[in-house]
């Protein structure tokens, strides 16, 4: 695969004459400033840090020859600051506006949590310091574990998994361990509803299970009869998201749990949507055996443009022994870390060290700020906001299922039938209105899905503006103004990008330009 | 509650618009017995900022921060100086509070960062292509093994005795549940094992770590050739990314996959996480990679832009046929890595690596002069193993009492084994007087 050699522009438009797109000399448009790659700003010998000379000693590399060159660009500190500041200005963020991505829970990220995560007693602690010197960090993990167990009603929790999908892996490993401990090795299937997140089947398959899909009923829930028909001695477990990805509470959940348990299988809950019920409903009371929690969703640790996440997993009594290492226990001299699995039912390690500590601090800071009363209010407001959006849009858009919904509301593209406008077009036009789009084309159980999750941290005025913008777009689509939608977005740093070209001839890194003299020699 | 904008009047008017009698009524699909009647018991109620600061501040004060004392811990997590610029820039809300860049028109910032990150990782490791990050080095290592199994259609991985035990265990956990063989060789402090002799027709890959968990540096060029001859892949793990500023890159040695921990650049110790896994491969394996990839393209106006690409490998498209179940990765830690590396640049990264190595040589000499202490490795970067006349765990505890964090006892990583070995790391943050204090305290503790 060749890099940067497909004749695509490898730099910003030349700073001469008038830029064809912006009409300006520079190609800039006011506050939107074109920014070259960092590699295109290199000056050999320039450096953004000042370091002392290395002591003069003979190197001791065991006969290995030092490398000649890395190939990184040299920039001074102000250039680096400006580079990343300009890049940041090309991003939409929850700090700048409503970010209604369904199933992603983009809520306000309090800065107190950032401050707490940077306390030296949490942030500047090495994971392998003697236990006697890390009691504060261990106490924080233990306190977080207490909150998570209390909020879910579960018997045990592991903080080890690095993100939601990693937590799913952990939960499925626990289920497998429990079956194996009983000598029950004939269970080869995991059942997953059609509406599930892609990570669910991917996780089950990665753990060696065959995945079988459970259809949905006309009201957007798991088809209990279809589930019962699939349950048998070959089923290890059910992976179910609740509230589900249609934004609905699985109202037959107790019957689902009973059927799963009756077949000798375990009930895994994908906790991605826990924000809808946190502080009001304990998953243990729903018959769930194991559930991961995305701290970066429900407990507001920042998404950071794609991580880091953190995916603690809670276990009911039945699965509580089957946890990975490490975990914190209360010892005679304070908190202790159990770091090796030993002979017991606990299984091995899932990552290096003890979990995403920086995320634990942020999540606990969020929990303490809200308290039990604040979490009750937060889940209530999250559900109220979603129902308000649904109520105010359902005369112009087509809601897929009857409400009430939980923390998110699902529409499909029936309202666009015959207009020539697609779900994608609506999303792109919404960007020009100053909003991040909702989740599109997911879940897969409805056609052209638009899944809206406003979260509890939006004001009514903010929601009203979003709703009015969507109403105007729905009406515009019905008026036949297809060209407007297909050309959107127009006001962004970049317009629609050619994803097909990107995948056909992947350019995945910058490469140094071929020197002019070498080209001439060819 | 300061994070909730709805007023009671808002709630009432919204309920009227929905035609619902109360918020509780919206939860009518929840089985009655499972819906609590009020806030959950056993937890405190809401607190103001000041109260949270007091509470967590008091908790944090019960730990001894590594930076408050002379500290020599490594073993996969290193305390480097992170320029103030890094933490300022990663806290810009447009980076901090953005989601995965699924809408490229309003995510060019994150996407360009990822494209630059991928390039930096490729340059540093000497590989063709890198992905947009993994959770950490250990999970990157396990994913590398699974990728090698897919590429070679074989299922036996050989794990070097120099591989960090946490990386080894992460890989063997996956091996047990996912169904492949991971043959872990005995610990090899001096770096003398013969890996080439272990390769057979069933071997999908050999995993080595350079420098090893014991600090030993080796050249794996011959092993790469041996792997190639037998149709196995060479996976090189790096836990101290700064070493790549001085040591020959794995790509140059012939590595097929590099799985590394990037924490050293831009990221604090954080008691072990979040860190950033680096994953780089040869061109021909791109479509077998796990994780996200950012690629260059053009927009409707013909201008250069960036998108997530080759998503047909990933779980949200392929579901049970995906190359990995990974979704969220380590975006913000990758940004911190990238900014730090941009500040360092060519000159900074090479000079910082030299500085770390020179300080390690100095400390090795100082510790070797302590009666009864000897250095195990003949070649190292900024970390090495010393042999003590007493069990290292007790020595480290006694040093901690003297407010010196004197390294990682090898027995912490290998319970019940090699209890006289101590792993010692040095970085630019350690002063000459730190090193002298360490040598002096060690002399006292051992006498």
How are the SSEs placed, and which strands pair?
The complex is a heterodimer of chains A (522) and B (447).
Chain A (H helix, E strand, L loop, with lengths): L76 H12 L22 H7 L2 H4 L11 H18 L3 E3 L5 H18 L7 E5 L5 H8 L3 E5 L9 H7 L4 E7 L11 H10 L3 E5 L19 E3 L20 E3 L8 E2 L1 E5 L2 E5 L8 E3 L7 H37 L4 E2 L9 E4 L10 H10 L6 E2 L9 E3 L7 H19 L3 H5 L12 H6 L11 H6 L1
Parallel strand pairs in A: 2-3, 2-4, 4-5, 5-6, 8-11
Antiparallel strand pairs in A: 1-7, 6-7, 9-10, 12-13, 13-15, 14-15
Helix pairs in contact in A: 2-9, 4-9, 5-6, 9-11
Chain B lengths: L7 H11 L30 H12 L23 H7 L2 H4 L11 H18 L3 E2 L6 H16 L3 E4 L5 H15 L1 E4 L18 E7 L11 H10 L2 E6 L11 H4 L3 E5 L15 E5 L11 E6 L5 E6 L5 H4 L12 H38 L5 E2 L7 E5 L4 H10 L6 E2 H4 L7 E5 L6 H15 L1
Parallel strand pairs in B: 2-3, 2-4, 4-5, 5-6
Antiparallel strand pairs in B: 1-7, 6-7, 8-9, 10-11, 11-13, 12-13
Question: Would you kindly provide a brief summary of this structure?
Answer:
The complex is a heterodimer of chains A (522) and B (447). Chain A has 522 residues and is an alpha/beta fold.
